[in-house]
Amino acid sequence: MEKIVSTVIHLCVGSTNPVKINAAKQAFEAVFPAYSIHCNGMNAPSGVSDQPMTEAETRLGAKNRVQYCFQQDTQKSADYFVAMEGGVDKFEEGVMTFAYVAILPSNGILSTGRSANLPLPNKIFKRLQGNEELGDVMDDIFHTTNIKQQGGAIGLLTNNSATRESIYIQALILALAPILHPEHYSA
């Protein structure tokens, strides 16, 4: 029996990276299973360095990307705008990579979230401090090509038990909570 889809949700993702576009689609499909999710990517500038090196810079990159998408949608065709930004920072536990996500419904009320931390080896961090990007460093060390559009550093360092996409999906689902239940999040 064919599933009847009642409504369509249009997403605009602040990236043309297929990993990010697919993560947004999967997260929204999980949260809105009765809806058909139509997802389009857009090249959105982060306004931060290519390799964010602090939590604050990473968060700002995600927010900048989602705001850019929102501002570009002059036809008001998207229901939600979504952006993801990967970054690195040094914590008490050591150097970690993580992502910030930003979701902006058409009503303009921003929701942000953050992924779990993945510990990074110091030798990788030193290269990042030399202005290299994490994906490029991982490609060099693991002899891969364009890993950032695949499993990412997360996939490589966890033997694909987790991937860049799976981490984005989880962070996006959690960031949707205030959107799903605004009555519990209002002041």
Provide tags for this entry.
187 residues, Maf protein, 6-stranded mixed beta sheet, 8 helices, manganese, nucleotide metabolism
Explain this structure.
With about 190 residues, the chain is an alpha/beta fold. It has a domain at about 10-115 and about 160-180: Alpha-Beta Complex (Maf protein). The protein has eight helices and six strands. It has helices spanning about 20-30, 55-70, 120-130, 135-140, 150-155, 165-175, 175-180, 180-185, and strands at about 5-15, 35-40, 80-90, 95-105, 110-115, 120. Strands 1, 2, 3, 4, 5 and 6 form a six-stranded mixed beta sheet that branches. The model has no long low-confidence stretch (mean pLDDT about 90).
